[in-house]
Amino acid sequence: MKKVMVTFILLVLLTSICFTPSLAATSDNDLEKVIISFEDGIDYQVLEDMGAEIHSELDAISSVIATIPSTTITKADTDISVKAISDEQIFKAAAQQPSWGYQQIKAPSALKAGYTGKGVKIAVIDSGINSKHPDLSVVGGASMIDNSSAFIDRNGHGTHVAGVIAALNNSIGVVGAAPDAEIYSVKVLSSNGAGTLEDVLDGIQWAIDHKMDIINLSLTTDAHKSELQAMLKKANDLGIIVVAAAGNNEIVDTQGNYVQTEDDVLYPARYKSVIAVGSTNTNNRLSGFSYTGPSVELVAPGEWIYSTFSKDALINPAEYQNSEGTSVSTPFVAAVFAQYKEAYPHLTNGQLRETVKRSTIDLGATGKDQLYGNGLVQSLQKQAALYPDLIANFWYSESIQFIFDQGIVAGFPDGTYRPSATITRADAITMIGRAQGWENNAARHYFHDVSTSSYAAGYINKAYELGYISGMPDGSFQPSAPIKRGDMAVILKKIFGLTSSGAHSFSDVNQTKYYAEAIQAAYENGIVLGYSSDIFRPEASITRAENAVMLSKSLKLQ
């Protein structure tokens, strides 16, 4: 269903500098600048027929920003290839402030552990960044505003945000929570803090095209735009972490209390693909100006945050300033994600999102709530293992790393490995199948309780055909049941041809049992050690960590 959307204004609170909304530039009376979205790819013939002058191509959402004669809009809107035609929109910078916040999120702990955001690419989509500031290192970027450099910031907002994230760890000024992150200045806001939808979309497209890891959006609007939603979803789908300011209340009642006019945070933070960030004070209480609602995911310090600034770099290139607002909270979160991205480069953006949520300090009501979301964001506190729930340099570390490197295991969707959890019979055979390079062909069907649609079906079939498994007496396989330690030893003995001397090393292993010889063979080949000198617990369910050790040691025998 096609629709024409009207212009809207991005609402922001600035405490250090006050700005008034400015409108997008007005074109000739007979021409209109619009966003044209297509159903299935950009149709250049339709654009030519419209007499369109194309300004930007947004390939990620099959759209263009173009100027077309106003008389052709109605006709063009009826074309079957056109999904929607939308008007322009004005954006304005969200608020800012200083850096007790660096301590509050425990950034020094991450620095001590060696996590500084090194190698992580962050796009600061904002008012530009003063690249001449001695406390900042700007790797690159681009300006979406005509005749305006991405590396000059006459507003100061983007430079302040950049400092919260990555002010250099040197002897001057301040230090960012991810001082070694690669900062890219993507300029979409003018010197008065205003920007258009076109420029914001172009900025996000640039971040996608240049393979950014993180996008920081310290800007807000009170109106939904489908193109903005689609573009941010595309970024998220491509693995980019997107953080945005929840928004700042600007209305105050007669008692001096802030009044929120929306039932949720502002856009783009409200979109599911975006991490919405609220603001807290030095007492870990929600800032009065901070927007609340079901979409709030994290909170971070946002009152009087001291950071790099740039009002006029020619006069004072080394400015600093206190600022406040949810736009200041947002870069703290971006910086923490940079720490985690550096520590866990193999985790997806979704897994990192869950990992950071689990590490927060819960504030307000227990669990997620509409004021604090999942809580106060926290930096990494110690040296990271392969997965956040693993212990570094532990008895299982080398083995889990080995099978991970072999592509045998990938962890859970929430970014955990769960070393103490039991492993199912289906998972155990799947890992063996991957390790052996078996084809996961589910065409044949040997067990009535193994669906052909199961992720493990092909591997179970292959293991049966090769004689490594036989199933249960009733003809089932019981894929969801935990696999026993004794059963795993039997399978590994068959696959890897393990032999034993016939000795009896474990007092709790009955020599008449089917697994007795296999356990002894696994022990003599250094695959298992037992729980003590003579205890093996053959009937106990094997854990994911134990399975990793047994499998990795078996593979190394090949």
Automatic annotation (TrEMBL):
Signal sequence, start to end: 1-24
Superkingdom assignment: Bacteria
CDD domains named in the record: Peptidases_S8_Subtilisin_subset
Active site annotation, chain numbering: 126, 157, 327
Keywords: Hydrolase, Metal-binding, Protease, Serine protease, Signal
PROSITE patterns registered for this protein in UniProt: SLH, SUBTILASE, SUBTILASE_ASP, SUBTILASE_HIS, SUBTILASE_SER
Gene3D superfamilies, per the entry: Peptidase S8/S53 domain
Gene Ontology MF, one: serine-type endopeptidase activity
Gene Ontology BP, a term: proteolysis
Cross-referenced Pfam families: Peptidase_S8 (PF00082), SLH (PF00395)
Residue intervals of the SLH domain: 383-446, 447-501, 502-558
Similarity comment text for this entry: Belongs to the peptidase S8 family.
Name of the featured protein: Alkaline serine protease
The species this protein was found in: Planococcus halotolerans
Classification of source organism: Bacteria, Bacillati, Bacillota, Bacilli, Bacillales
